[in-house]
Design brief:
With about 260 residues, the chain is α/β, with parallel strands linked by helices. Helices cover about 45% and strands about 15% of the residues. The protein has a 7-stranded parallel sheet with strand order 3-2-1-4-5-6-7, sandwiched between helices. Helix 1 crosses helix 8, helix 4 runs parallel beside helix 5 and helix 5 packs parallel to helix 6. The longest helix is centred in the middle third of the chain and has 29 residues.
Length: about 260
C-alpha cells in the first residue's frame, strides 16, 4: 500500500491496538501514511484486525506486550524510538470488569484497572517523552466521559479515566514549551468489546446508536493532522447524538448508555 498521506514519514505507537478504538486508530493512522507500531496483549487478534494488506506493507508492525508491565514498555519504546523515532503516541489500552460496583469491587480488580488504564499510559508517556520532544510530537490519551461525569461504569474505571485526564493536563502543561501536545479524548458509549464486560451488556438497539470505534479514531486524527502546530485542543468530548447529554443521569443502568468505551 502507498505510504503517501498527511502522516507519511511519521511513526506512531498505538496501545490497545487489537480491537475497538485502538485498532481503529492504528488502521486509520496507517491509512494516513504513518508507520504504525501496534501494541496489545493479543497479537493474533491485532494481525487479523489490521488485515493482510497492511501487514504486508511493512508499515503496520504488531507487538505482543502487556502495557501494565513498566519495564517491558520502557524497553519496547526505547527500541522503537531509537530505530524509527516516535512522532505520535496514542494510548487506547483499557479494560473494565463485570463486578464493578463499589460493594463488589475487589482489591485485585482495582489494581488491574489502574495498572492497565492509568499506569500503562504513564509508562509509555515516560519512555516516549525524549522522542516526542525531539519530534515535537503528539500524545493522545483515550479517556472517557466516565472520568468527568458519574455513571454506572464503576469507581475503579471512573477513577482511572479521571486520572488519565489529569495526567494529560499536567503533561501538556509541562511540555508545551518543548512543542509536545497532549490531548485527552473523552468518548461516551462506544460499541466495542468492552461493553461485553458489563453486568448486563447493552441491547442491540443501544449499541446501534452508540459511537463506533472509527468515530473516535477520526477524532484522534483531527487532533494530529488538522490543527497547525500553534493550536492545541487539550480535551475533546464526543457523545452519541441519540443517547447522551453531559450531566444526564437517566438511562445509566448497567445496560444503558454509560461511559464505557
Amino acid at each position: 500500500m502507498s505510504s503517501g498521506g498527511p502522516l507519511a514519514g511519521r511513526t506512531a505507537v498505538v496501545t490497545g491496538a487489537s480491537s475497538g478504538i485502538g485498532l481503529a486508530t492504528a488502521n486509520l493512522l496507517f491509512d494516513a501514511g504513518a508507520l504504525v507500531h501496534g501494541v496489545a496483549r493479543r497479537e493474533e487478534m491485532m494481525r487479523s484486525g489490521a488485515g493482510k494488506e497492511r501487514l504486508a506493507s511493512g508499515r503496520f508492525v504488531p507487538h505482543a506486550l502487556d502495557v501494565s508491565d513498566g519495564e517491558a514498555a520502557a524497553r519496547f519504546v526505547e527500541e522503537v524510538g531509537r530505530r524509527d523515532g516516535i512522532d505520535v503516541l496514542v494510548l487506547a489500552a483499557g479494560t473494565n470488569v463485570p463486578d464493578r460496583n463499589l460493594e463488589r469491587l475487589t482489591a485485585g480488580a482495582w489494581d488491574e484497572l489502574i495498572s492497565v488504564n492509568l499506569s500503562g499510559a504513564f509508562y509509555f508517556i515516560r519512555a516516549a517523552l525524549p522522542h516526542l520532544r525531539e519530534a515535537r510530537g503528539d500524545a493522545v490519551l483515550v479517556s472517557s466521559v466516565s472520568g468527568s461525569w458519574p455513571d454506572s461504569s464503576g469507581p475503579a474505571y471512573q477513577a482511572s479515566k479521571a486520572a488519565m485526564i489529569r495526567l494529560s493536563r499536567a503533561a501538556g502543561f509541562e511540555e508545551h514549551e518543548r512543542g509536545v501536545r497532549f490531548s485527552a479524548v473523552l468518548p461516551g458509549i462506544v460499541d466495542t468489546p468492552i461493553l461485553d464486560n458489563r453486568p448486563e451488556p447493552p441491547p442491540k438497539e443501544v449499541r446501534d446508536l452508540a459511537l463506533k470505534p472509527e468515530d473516535v479514531a477520526r477524532a484522534c486524527l483531527f487532533l494530529l493532522i488538522t490543527l497547525p502546530p500553534r493550536a492545541h485542543v487539550p480535551e475533546l468530548t464526543m457523545l452519541p447524538t441519540a443517547l447522551q447529554a453531559l450531566g444526564k443521569t437517566t438511562g445509566s443502568s448497567p445496560s444503558g448508555p454509560g461511559g464505557d468505551r
